[in-house]
Structure formats: structure tokens, C-alpha cells
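Let us practice reading a record.
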Amino acid sequence: MYNGRVIHDLDPLTEEFIPEAMLHRNAQRKIIEDTLDPLLKGYKPRPLLLYGPAGTGKTSLATDIAQDLTDESGNLRTAYVNCWVDYSKFRVLYSIVQQIASPLLIHRKGTPTDELVERLERSLNSSRCLIILDEVDQLKDKDALYVLARPGVGLVFIADTEGALLDASLRTRSRLGTLRTVGFKVYSVDELISILTARAKHALYPHTVSPEQLRSIAISANGDARRAIETLRFSAEDAQRSDRDSISDSDIEQAIPQAKRESNERGISKLNMHQRILYAIIQEAKTIGSADLYHRYYEQVHDPVRVRTLRDYLQKMTFYGFVHSRGTGRWRTYSLAE
């Protein structure tokens, strides 16, 4: 319980909360469940690629279905890896081994990749597994996927674009086979309103927020359900701190930019080392041309990535709204998003 006159249960307004039914994602759920169904019968399912902008329910739906399949099967092992954090082949395999095999004999420091692969293959050969790789386009060496594409293993990849695996080697793509892609569009305003209404029903006391206020929050979120829910939470917390019994319009006006900042900071915290350096250079320069940006990056990094990879990183940072880019080719400039 949550003391106060506005919030009676904060949990439904947190990122970790998974509702009993995810609204407006029935079509995607059916495709994913139908595709993974062979896994429960001992067959290898087609790999899935879930793609779409942040806050559209990709990860929540994937992990929810994984839990349902685990409950139904009883002997299905699951592993979830966020490739923003574990972006090398070694780190991905290490994380999976820790989740589906006994972790006692595996140590992150001093463990050769070959030993990890051998341990992983033994585990995959002896049981059925479902592996979810979130932000798979951040995976530095996609040949790691070659090791995972085996009988009795279901693979779910999550990314922002449909072309997230196009840079994988022909060998790896051939091993994976034909991907089944599932698109997630941004939520409409009316869809966000229904999501917020359901969350408010479970989290807030009756009549503490009006339908008009929920519409204002939905419009401000630009189709991002996570951001909309955070805005509602911040608004409710402000009202509760002020010892009022309802959310005011000013609470929402203050919460909207706060939720936007939280969204940006959450994304920036996920940047890998190379992306953080690029971000810091742009932040210091205010506005910088691509050639100068690359030059400064190579001055600062002892083990740099290729220019093509830098372009991919910057494209990703632009897509997520961390930076703005203008112009093309050698005349392109970068600045931080406002």
C-alpha cells in the first residue's frame, strides 16, 4: 500500500510492472506465440525480429510471452540479454550461460570464449531454450548468433529497425534462416489513453485524474507508452506530496518535461563507451562537423572502431533523439537534442 490520497499502489506506474493483458498488442502476441509454439513440441522455431520505436511494448510483450511459455512447459529455460550492456560476443555468451547453466564453474575474468561456447553448446543440446536479445543491433560481433542458432532454441531479437541484422555475415544469416519480423508502431493518442486509464484504475484512487488530463498526457508522450506512464506517475507523486486529493493541470505541466528528461537520461545511460565519447564530444562542441567529430574521437580512443561503425552509432543516437544531424556526407553536422 501507498500512504496518501492520490496513489494507493505505485507498482502499476513503474517500468517493471507487466499488466495481465497488454492492450493493443493482440496481433503481435498471436504472431509471436504461433511462431514459438514449435519450441514446446521439441522443434526449432523460426527466429523472430521485433522492431519499432522505444516505448511500443516490444520488450514487455516478449518477456511476458517467455514467462507464459516457461509456465506452460515446465522444462523450458529462458535467457534475456540487453546488447546495449553486453555488446560483445563474449559478454552475450557469458550472460546466457549464467542464466541457463550452472554458474559455479564459469568466471567472467580469465574464461576463454571457446570454453563459453563449449559450455553453452552442452546446455543447448540438453534442453530447450528461449533466448531474447534486446537491442540486438548494438551487438558488436553478430557471429555470436551463429552459436545460438541450434535445434531446440528459440531466438527473439528486439531492435528499433527491421534491418537490424543486415550487417551479420552471410554465414550467420544462412544459419539463422528466414526471420519472421513483427512490427510495433507507436501508440495512437486514443490507445495511450486506454493504457493510462487502465494503469490509473489500478494505481490511483477514483476521481484523482480526469479523462481530459489523461488525454493531455497521452498527446505529450508522442506514442511512447513508457513516457506516458512516467508522466502520470510524476504528476500523481507531485499531487500526493502536496497533500491534495487529485492531480492538477500544473502537476501535469511540470511532469511532462520531467518524463522527457527521464526518457533521454535512460537512453543515454545505455550508450556504450564509444557512443558516450561521441556524445561528450558533441556536448562540448555544441555543434560539430562529422570530419572534426571523427578526428576528436580517434584522438581520445586507444582501441577505436571503424568509421562505418561510428556512422552506425551516430545514426542510432539520432534515431533515438539524443543528437540532431543536419546536412549530408562531409557537410553533416551534429548537435545535442534540446
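A brief commentary: The chain has 13 helices and eight strands.
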